[in-house]
Fold each of these.
Amino acid sequence: MTLEKKGRFWYGTTVEDVKAEIVRFSRESAYPAVKFAQSRCGCGSVIFRLESDEDEGAARRFCVACGTSHWMGDSADYADGARFVGHTCVCDHEQFMLLSGVALYEGSNDVRWYTIGCLCMNCRLVGVFAEWKCEAGDADAFLSRI
């Protein structure tokens, strides 16, 4: 890992750096993420724009290579009432590598909390850009749809 703190923010170069930030952040919020999956478009690209509504518990990503949009996890179930906000890095760029992490209910594989971490493709900032309580059931099935 190559995480480096500069001022208030962390910077990195790999999806493993995003994972480290999700782990750090989620431990502080009392719902430690234990399972992870990287977003990948059907075209093979791993670079996206991200929109979310944390109040409704919904997120969607847009592939920068082919333009395809994709609901993340169970977000399609909550999209009707959502007011999506696009995410922009502190450097004003909007293209990210995305990693999702989930916390589980004790003794189960059921999702309890969902966290989306990002790596900015311009300045390499690593951060958690969205999180919410999530009753999505099986974590493996949920993460297969991110």
Note: The chain has one domain: 11-143.
Amino acid sequence: MTDIIPLIQSAILLIAAFLVLLTAYGILRYGDNIENIIYARIHILGVADIALIIVLFALNEPLMAGAYFILAPFAAHAVANGYFYGEEEK
């Protein structure tokens, strides 16, 4: 029974690595010619956030996963607000 736990952890890490690669592809796929591209990129990075939380739970780090689960949306919101209310030409 104890030999199956590392296999499950390895499978979860591989799935998370696939999600991170998929996220990287999604970010690179979008060009800068789309209006408000920052919002689409923040949404794509949410996939990487979930992958990281899954990996932290798989590695038996629930406190770090919980902290990241709480703090990541605040960071994304701050970036989106900074872009929306910024002085940059749109």
Note: The radius of gyration is 16 Å.
Amino acid sequence: MKPTPGYYRRLLSDPKIRIAFTHTPIVGCSRIDNHTVIEELKNSTDEFADYYITGLENGEMQAIVENQYQQDYYAPGELYFKS
């Protein structure tokens, strides 16, 4: 059984860290060292921690951070809004 999307956020202490699948291109992010994330997940007793550990160790997943952290989302010609 797979966890719901974004479930890893409950397991990590840093809210800026994301875990992404390597088969999907992502723009605007930088890779970070997987070992620090793996060590934090190994200390977790959550049932899905092993799923993320396995994915990070065998290269199916990668720990990333966004290059620009922006909380205002807008489209050209629209007013700013928060979500």
Note: Residues 7-82 form one domain.
